[in-house]
Amino acid sequence: MSESHTPAATVSTSPVRIASIDVLRGIVMVLMAIDHVRVYSGLPAGGPTPGIFFTRWITHFCAPAFAFFAGTSAFLYGRKLSDRGALARFLVTRGFILVVLELTVIRFAWTFNFDYSHFVLAGVIWMLGWCMVLLAGLVRFPVKAVGAIGLAIICFQQVFRVLPNALPESVRNSTGWIWEFIYPAGFKRWEDVSILYVLVPWIGVMAIGYAFGAILTCEPAERRKICLRIGLASTAIFLIAGGLSVFLSPVSSPPGSAPPVLFRLLNQNKYPASQLFLLMTLGPTIALLPLAERWRGWFAGILATFGRVPMFYYLLHIPVIHIAALVVTLLREGSVHPEWYSYAPFTSVPEEYRWGLPLLYLVFVIVIAVLYVPCRWLARVKAQRKGWLSYL
Fold it and tell me: Which of 29, 258, 300, 304 is the most buried (most CB within 10 A)?
């Protein structure tokens, strides 16, 4: 049977559970490319038009799904190893590899320059790497304890803003910049380092994802029931709590210029990720898992292919999008204007040169088509060989 006709899930075996995760992970990876094409298009994040708002909003599901399913994959891999010590070593090794890749290969892919003296990015791969290192210290605890710790970190994350106040002033003044990598607490950040993703609450998300892996070992009918309950309950809590927040919070905009109620509900804080942001994104993601188990056909096969090689896809998609942006700029303006992207993902494309949404989505489709070819090749090789390929 050819890959394009491989079911996303079949009978109740371990590959089934992994396959359903691969499909969802493939979805969020494809969505991630939309946002990164938007970055190079110069269009602002989140507005002001509905088209731009939802182009950005739909990609909010990516980082939570990456962190959550990284934890789930760690649990399933640990179950295969039957050795928590070996799992911890794997997580530490993989985590440090991700941190190094963020500071080298990925940083270059974003900017196409080596000017570290003015710009270093602590992005999503940096965050995932350090969270894996921290998760390595948790996997020796019972699974329920890991989930409880993760949930507590998410629910009480604001405590990390005030914790430094308990330290002596001399310690705060000398180490405050380190705390800014953990959670924003108002300290002066390390100069020329842009911290996009702090570690809290993301380590909590990875920890509950690890505990969620135990649910995926249940029988299919029970697993689907639990996923629906968790996903729909989380989404309902978001709608209730988020709705109350919108209607009870005063609008600071001048009369007649306030964002629509729907925009205010969906525009939850991502940096750092608030409790409502995580409910909004993880709830629907978990609720979709039962559907992903039943997906069939060529499209599910494409998504699963991307989901099987997540790191390879990530390393490849940024330079492909960057090159595509330079080509588009050359065709439209007669020059590539590399200076617009020298601090990517914080680009500085002049307003008159920004792309429209039709061009953005056209480039996105072309990028995905280009990426599928090498990802399909590696997915096939990875299925036949193990070893170091597990890191991709």
Answer: 304
pTM of the model as a whole: 0.92
Q: Which amino acid is at 230?
A: I
Are 39 and 344 within 8 A, CB to CB? yes
Here the tokens at position 14 are 């371990």
Q: What is the pLDDT of residues 23-57, one digit of tens each?
A: 999 999 999 999 999 999 999 987 779 999 999 99
Asked if 87 contacts 78 with a C-beta cutoff of 8 angstroms, the reply is yes
Alpha carbon distance 88, 337 (integer Å):
45
Cα separation, 155 vs 234, whole angstroms: 13
State the burial class of residue 248 (Cβ atoms within 10 Å of its Cβ: 0-12, 13-18, 19+). exposed
Q: How many CB atoms lie within 10 A of CB 351?
A: 8
* Calpha distance 253→232 (Å, rounded): 33
> Residue 68: which of 147, 160, 183 has the closest Cα?
147
Cis ω before 350 (30° cut-off from 0): no
Distance CA 17, CA 216 (A): 6
**DSSP 8-class letter at 339:** G
